[in-house]
Amino acid sequence: MAQQLLTQFEQFLDRIAQPIKPHLPVLARFLLVVTFLEDSLRITTQYNDQKFYLKKHRGFWPAFADLFLITNVLLMLSCSILAIAKKHTQIAVGGLFFVVLSQGLGYGLLFESSFFFRTLSVVGGLVMLLADAAATSNKKTIFAGLPQMNDDSRSTYLQLFGRVLLVFLFMSFIFAGEMTVTRAIVALIAFVGCVMVVVGFKAKWSAGMLILFLSISNVVLNNWWSLHHAHPQRDFQRYDFFQNLSIMGGFLLLVNLGPGGLSMDEKKKNF
């Protein structure tokens, strides 16, 4: 009975989503890179402040600070455009991954727990972007020296890796902060959704549930637009807001692609 109701609910959701389904991949790719687009705009409009911070607090030489900032801006803009257009996806993902790593090291945030978990989820979204490209491309990989596998196999493993990484943002929410009754209930729901995504059970439905959860919490917790422009937390909340949008883009790619061959959903089809 429960299985029948769940199947009917999934069919209902599919009917509702039908009008936007053709546009879902483009929307997902745009959301995935929106944090990089916003970050490039922020660095450009606050260039002197960013350079001062790197020199004063991170010990950068002036010329190296300029090189660091300009390189990051150019990479974020060019690679984001390539990702949205679905052109040279491997190069785009490689460039954006370099940005994530260099900024984590450059600003000294790489091993700060909140940044670390959030960054893993963003990287998970980038891995899903690679999976999407592999699933729809017949081109050979650029890594010619490595053992080769066909696009379907590569996409399957990338989807598994991407699913695991995507849920790390929720781990920081579940296990951090004071635990109240309300928080415990919400954390339990999020944890169940994360487990379902990782093992690939009803993955599209559970990914949709986590997108809804993330959408609501993002507006409630990271409402940077309500803060005064000089408020010290405004930039931090704006950064978190757009990073959450990018993680939602990764989950949308999961909804569009499905969990892949290494999942319970796929295994059930074989029985």
List the helices and strands and how they pair.
Blueprint: H1 2-17, H2 24-45, H3 47-58, H4 62-85, H5 89-106, H6 113-135, H7 151-166, H8 168-175, H9 181-199, H10 203-221, H11 234-257, H12 264-269
Total of helices: 12
* Beta-strand residue fraction: under 5%
N to C succession of SSEs: HHHHHHHHHHHH
Compute the number of strand runs: 0
**Cα-atom Rg, whole angstroms?**
20 Å
Structural class: mainly alpha
Ends apart, CA distance between termini: 20 Å
Percent helix: over 70%
Which spans of ≥5 residues are poorly predicted at pLDDT below 50?
Answer: none
Average pLDDT score = 86
The major sheet is characterized as: none
- Quaternary structure annotation: single chain
**Overall shape:** globular
Question: Your description of this structure?
Answer:
The chain is mainly alpha-helical. 76% of the residues lie in helices and 0% in strands. The chain contains twelve helices and no strands. Helix 2 (24-45) runs antiparallel to helix 11 and helix 6 runs antiparallel to helix 8 (168-175). The longest helix has 24 residues, at 62-85. It is globular. The model has no long low-confidence stretch (mean pLDDT 86).
How would you sum up this structure in a few lines?
The chain is an all-alpha fold and 271 residues long. The chain contains twelve helices and no strands.
